[in-house]
Amino acid sequence: MTRRTKTAADTVVRAPRARPALRLSLQFADPRHRGTLVRADVARWIRAALAVPAEITVRIVDAEEGLALNRDFRDQDHATNVLTFPYDDKPVLGADLVLCAPVVEGEARAQGIPLAAHYAHLIVHGTLHAQGFDHERTADARRMEARESEVLAGLGFADPYAA
After folding, report:
1. 8 Å CB contact between 153 and 117
2. How far is CA 8 from CA 5, 11, 12, 23, in A?
3. Is the dihedral of CA 127, 130, 133, 135 positive or negative?
4. pLDDT of 77-115, one tens digit each?
5. What are the helix (H) ranges across 3-94?
6. In Å, how far from its chain's centre is CA 101?
7. Which H helix or E strand runs over 128?
Protein backbone atom coordinates (compact mmCIF):
# COMPACT_ATOMS: atom_id res chain seq x y z
CA MET A 1 0.00 0.00 0.00
CA THR A 2 1.37 3.41 -0.93
CA ARG A 3 0.86 6.54 1.07
CA ARG A 4 -0.54 9.57 -0.59
CA THR A 5 1.79 12.56 -0.59
CA LYS A 6 0.47 15.62 1.18
CA THR A 7 -0.05 18.52 -1.21
CA ALA A 8 -0.68 22.20 -0.72
CA ALA A 9 -4.37 21.54 -1.31
CA ASP A 10 -4.40 19.30 1.77
CA THR A 11 -3.17 22.07 4.04
CA VAL A 12 -5.85 23.89 5.97
CA VAL A 13 -5.14 27.58 6.08
CA ARG A 14 -6.87 29.42 8.88
CA ALA A 15 -7.33 33.13 8.60
CA PRO A 16 -6.26 35.10 11.64
CA ARG A 17 -9.11 35.65 14.07
CA ALA A 18 -10.76 38.96 13.29
CA ARG A 19 -10.59 41.32 16.24
CA PRO A 20 -13.74 43.15 17.29
CA ALA A 21 -14.01 46.82 16.42
CA LEU A 22 -12.66 49.23 19.01
CA ARG A 23 -13.19 52.93 19.50
CA LEU A 24 -10.51 54.07 21.95
CA SER A 25 -10.08 57.28 23.88
CA LEU A 26 -6.71 57.51 25.65
CA GLN A 27 -6.51 60.28 28.27
CA PHE A 28 -3.53 61.40 30.33
CA ALA A 29 -4.56 63.31 33.46
CA ASP A 30 -1.10 62.25 34.70
CA PRO A 31 1.29 62.54 31.74
CA ARG A 32 4.30 60.77 33.28
CA HIS A 33 3.87 57.59 31.18
CA ARG A 34 2.72 59.15 27.92
CA GLY A 35 5.86 57.83 26.18
CA THR A 36 5.28 54.29 27.50
CA LEU A 37 1.61 54.13 26.53
CA VAL A 38 1.60 54.43 22.77
CA ARG A 39 -1.98 54.56 21.48
CA ALA A 40 -1.45 51.76 18.94
CA ASP A 41 -0.08 49.47 21.66
CA VAL A 42 -2.93 50.22 24.06
CA ALA A 43 -5.46 49.51 21.29
CA ARG A 44 -3.68 46.22 20.43
CA TRP A 45 -3.71 45.14 24.09
CA ILE A 46 -7.43 45.87 24.43
CA ARG A 47 -8.37 44.24 21.12
CA ALA A 48 -6.51 41.08 22.12
CA ALA A 49 -8.79 40.74 25.16
CA LEU A 50 -12.05 41.78 23.47
CA ALA A 51 -14.74 39.35 22.40
CA VAL A 52 -17.21 42.05 21.27
CA PRO A 53 -17.08 45.49 19.63
CA ALA A 54 -16.31 48.18 22.20
CA GLU A 55 -15.94 51.85 23.00
CA ILE A 56 -13.36 52.13 25.76
CA THR A 57 -11.78 55.08 27.47
CA VAL A 58 -8.42 54.52 29.15
CA ARG A 59 -7.58 57.28 31.60
CA ILE A 60 -4.19 57.55 33.31
CA VAL A 61 -4.54 59.40 36.61
CA ASP A 62 -2.40 60.62 39.50
CA ALA A 63 -2.62 59.31 43.08
CA GLU A 64 -5.12 61.97 44.15
CA GLU A 65 -7.66 61.15 41.43
CA GLY A 66 -7.03 57.42 41.85
CA LEU A 67 -7.74 57.68 45.58
CA ALA A 68 -10.89 59.76 45.05
CA LEU A 69 -12.32 57.33 42.49
CA ASN A 70 -11.51 54.23 44.53
CA ARG A 71 -12.99 55.82 47.65
CA ASP A 72 -16.13 57.11 45.91
CA PHE A 73 -16.91 54.01 43.83
CA ARG A 74 -15.33 51.11 45.73
CA ASP A 75 -15.32 52.39 49.35
CA GLN A 76 -11.56 51.80 49.53
CA ASP A 77 -9.38 54.49 51.08
CA HIS A 78 -6.35 54.06 48.83
CA ALA A 79 -5.43 54.46 45.20
CA THR A 80 -5.45 51.18 43.28
CA ASN A 81 -3.78 50.10 40.05
CA VAL A 82 -6.86 49.77 37.81
CA LEU A 83 -10.56 50.50 38.13
CA THR A 84 -13.06 49.28 35.55
CA PHE A 85 -16.37 51.00 34.96
CA PRO A 86 -18.49 48.97 32.49
CA TYR A 87 -21.50 50.59 30.85
CA ASP A 88 -23.74 49.35 28.04
CA ASP A 89 -22.89 46.04 26.46
CA LYS A 90 -25.47 45.90 23.67
CA PRO A 91 -24.73 46.20 20.82
CA VAL A 92 -21.36 47.73 21.76
CA LEU A 93 -19.54 47.30 25.06
CA GLY A 94 -18.82 50.61 26.75
CA ALA A 95 -16.29 50.95 29.56
CA ASP A 96 -13.82 53.24 31.26
CA LEU A 97 -10.51 51.86 32.51
CA VAL A 98 -8.77 54.11 35.01
CA LEU A 99 -5.13 53.37 35.80
CA CYS A 100 -3.24 55.14 38.56
CA ALA A 101 0.23 55.94 37.19
CA PRO A 102 2.15 56.06 40.49
CA VAL A 103 0.60 52.79 41.71
CA VAL A 104 1.31 51.01 38.41
CA GLU A 105 4.86 52.33 38.38
CA GLY A 106 5.50 51.25 41.98
CA GLU A 107 4.11 47.76 41.37
CA ALA A 108 6.20 47.29 38.22
CA ARG A 109 9.32 48.37 40.09
CA ALA A 110 8.54 46.07 43.06
CA GLN A 111 7.90 43.12 40.73
CA GLY A 112 10.99 43.84 38.63
CA ILE A 113 9.04 43.95 35.37
CA PRO A 114 8.97 46.50 32.56
CA LEU A 115 6.42 49.27 33.03
CA ALA A 116 4.82 48.58 29.62
CA ALA A 117 4.36 44.89 30.53
CA HIS A 118 2.54 45.82 33.73
CA TYR A 119 0.33 48.33 31.92
CA ALA A 120 -0.46 45.69 29.29
CA HIS A 121 -1.46 43.23 32.03
CA LEU A 122 -3.67 45.74 33.84
CA ILE A 123 -5.32 46.94 30.63
CA VAL A 124 -6.07 43.34 29.62
CA HIS A 125 -7.32 42.69 33.18
CA GLY A 126 -9.60 45.74 33.07
CA THR A 127 -10.88 44.84 29.60
CA LEU A 128 -11.82 41.37 30.83
CA HIS A 129 -13.61 42.89 33.85
CA ALA A 130 -15.59 45.10 31.45
CA GLN A 131 -16.78 41.92 29.72
CA GLY A 132 -17.98 40.30 32.93
CA PHE A 133 -14.89 38.41 34.11
CA ASP A 134 -14.38 38.49 37.86
CA HIS A 135 -12.01 37.12 40.47
CA GLU A 136 -14.08 37.15 43.65
CA ARG A 137 -14.45 33.34 43.78
CA THR A 138 -11.52 30.97 43.34
CA ALA A 139 -12.92 29.27 40.22
CA ASP A 140 -13.67 32.65 38.60
CA ALA A 141 -10.19 33.92 39.49
CA ARG A 142 -8.57 30.86 37.87
CA ARG A 143 -10.65 31.36 34.73
CA MET A 144 -9.81 35.07 34.54
CA GLU A 145 -6.11 34.57 35.25
CA ALA A 146 -5.90 31.83 32.62
CA ARG A 147 -7.47 34.14 30.05
CA GLU A 148 -5.14 37.01 31.03
CA SER A 149 -2.11 34.72 30.69
CA GLU A 150 -3.31 33.48 27.29
CA VAL A 151 -3.89 37.01 25.97
CA LEU A 152 -0.59 38.31 27.30
CA ALA A 153 1.33 35.36 25.82
CA GLY A 154 -0.25 36.14 22.46
CA LEU A 155 1.02 39.69 22.83
CA GLY A 156 4.53 38.52 23.67
CA PHE A 157 4.44 39.24 27.42
CA ALA A 158 5.43 36.89 30.23
CA ASP A 159 2.76 35.19 32.31
CA PRO A 160 2.09 37.54 35.26
CA TYR A 161 0.92 34.60 37.38
CA ALA A 162 3.87 32.28 36.79
CA ALA A 163 5.53 31.33 40.06
Report:
1. no
2. 10, 5, 9, 39
3. positive
4. 999 999 999 997 778 999 999 999 999 999 999 999 999
5. 39-49, 63-74
6. 15
7. helix 115-130
**How confident is residue 10, by pLDDT bands cut at 50, 70 and 90?**
very low
Task: Say which residues have a Cβ less than 8 Å from residue 100's Cβ, sequence separation at least 6.
Answer: 30, 61, 62, 63, 65, 66, 79, 80, 81, 82
Residue 29 to residue 21: CA distance in whole angstroms: 26
Quick one: 20-154 is in which CATH superfamily? Metalloproteases ("zincins"), catalytic domain (3.40.390.30)
Total length of the chain: 163
Instruction: Pick the closest to residue 33 from 58, 56, 57 (CA basis).
Output: 58
